[in-house]
TrEMBL record:
UniProt KW keywords: Isomerase, Lyase, Purine biosynthesis
Keyword Flavoprotein attributed: no
Catalytic reactions on record: 5-carboxyamino-1-(5-phospho-D-ribosyl)imidazole + H(+) = 5-amino-1-(5-phospho-D-ribosyl)imidazole-4-carboxylate
Function: Catalyzes the conversion of N5-carboxyaminoimidazole ribonucleotide (N5-CAIR) to 4-carboxy-5-aminoimidazole ribonucleotide (CAIR).
Protein's pathway: Purine metabolism; IMP biosynthesis via de novo pathway; 5-amino-1-(5-phospho-D-ribosyl)imidazole-4-carboxylate from 5-amino-1-(5-phospho-D-ribosyl)imidazole (N5-CAIR route): step 2/2
PANTHER family according to UniProt: PHOSPHORIBOSYLAMINOIMIDAZOLE CARBOXYLASE, PHOSPHORIBOSYLAMINOIMIDAZOLE CARBOXYLASE CATALYTIC SUBUNIT
Name listed for the protein in its UniProt record: N5-carboxyaminoimidazole ribonucleotide mutase
Taxonomy of the source species: Bacteria, Pseudomonadati, Pseudomonadota, Alphaproteobacteria, Rhodobacterales
Domain PurE, chain residue ranges per copy: 3-154
Residues annotated for substrate binding in this entry: 11, 14, 41
Protein family according to the UniProt entry: Belongs to the AIR carboxylase family. Class I subfamily.
Principal EC category: isomerase
Length: 161
C-alpha cells in the first residue's frame, strides 16, 4: 500500500508527542510511516530519507524535534515535499528553543511550523490531511466530518462539573 505521510522525529523521546500526529492520521484513514531520523545523530539517514522521499511516493513529511531542532529545516532543504514542523516541548526551555530552531527558515525553504507540543503534533496531522484532501474528495469528506464533530462537541454554556 502506498504511504502518503512520513512522520520523522529526532529521538525515541519525541514519540510521546509525535504519536498524536500518527493518531489523527489513523483516525482519518491516512497511511503513514514513523521513523527516527536525527539531524545530529544520524545525518546520513536524514540525507537518504530526504533524497528518496518523493520518489518513494510520500506526499507530506511531518518532522518533530526538540532543542536544537534542525531536523525539519534540514529535511526541507533536501526534499521538495511539504514539510510540517513540530517543536517538541523541552525541559530546559519549554520548547521555545525548538520553536525558534524550526520557525525562522530562510527564504526559499519553508517549514510549516506548528504549535509547541502535543497540540502541534495533532495539528500537523490535520494540516497533512488538509493538503492530501485537496486531491482526495473522500478524505475531504472525512476531514470535514471530523471538524464538524469537534465543533458539535463544544458546549455553548460553561458547567461546574
Ligand atoms: C533532539 O534532542 C530530539 O528531537 C529530542 O527532542 C531531543 C532530546 O533527545 P534525547 O536526548 O531524548 O534522545 O535531537
Amino acid at each position: 500500500m502506498a504511504i502518503d505521510v512520513g512522520i520523522i522525529m529526532g529521538s525515541q523521546s519525541d514519540w510521546a508527542t509525535m504519536k498524536e500526529a500518527a493518531a489523527i492520521l489513523e483516525e482519518l484513514g491516512i497511511t503513514y510511516e514513523a521513523k527516527i531520523v536525527s539531524a545530529h545523530r544520524t545525518p546520513d539517514r536524514l540525507w537518504s530519507y530526504g533524497k528518496t522521499a518523493a520518489e518513494r511516493g510520500l506526499k507530506v513529511i511531518i518532522a518533530g524535534a526538540g532543542g536544537a531542532a534542525h531536523l525539519p529545516g534540514m529535511m526541507a532543504s533536501k526534499t521538495r515535499l511539504p514539510v510540517i514542523g513540530v517543536p517538541v516541548q523541552t525541559k530546559a526551555l519549554s520548547g521555545v528553543d525548538s520553536l525558534y530552531s524550526i520557525v525562522q527558515m530562510p527564504k526559499g525553504f519553508p517549514v510549516a511550523t506548528m504549535a509547541i507540543g502535543a497540540a502541534g503534533a495533532t495539528n500537523a496531522g490535520l494540516m497533512a490531511a488538509g493538503i492530501l484532501a485537496l486531491a482526495d474528495p473522500a478524505l475531504a469528506q472525512r476531514l470535514q466530518a471530523w471538524r464538524d464533530a469537534l465543533s458539535a462537541s463544544i458546549p455553548e454554556e460553561p458547567s461546574d462539573d
